[in-house]
User: What shape does this take?
Amino acid sequence: MAEKEGDPTKVNLGDLGVIRDILMGQHINQYESQFSNIDQKHHALQDNIDELSRTTQDAMQQMEDAVNHRFDKLEALLSNQVELLKDNIAATSRKDRHMIGKLLEKMGQQLLKD
Assistant: This one.
């Protein structure tokens, strides 16, 4: 009792429980039960969200790996095709130079005949 008389701002927690029971009565038990149910549902939903997040991240990683693999294959194919085109251009260029050389040689021979 000395504590209550010495400091009026200090309230015993047991007194708060009694006041709560008087004011709220049976309703407080219902509210606590509802809050408990809501809390359980919240935790279950959070677990579902976490699992979905992990599943989504795994799926996204698999898709990213697949896309990267396809890009690598496409890059290799494109590089190969570019090299083939370079080789074809070089071969055509050599063939054209050879044909031009033959034509110039024939023209030179015809000019010498005249």
Residues 105 and 111 are 10 Å apart (CA to CA). The chain has a mean pLDDT of 86. The chain has one domain: 2-113. Residues 2-113 form one domain.
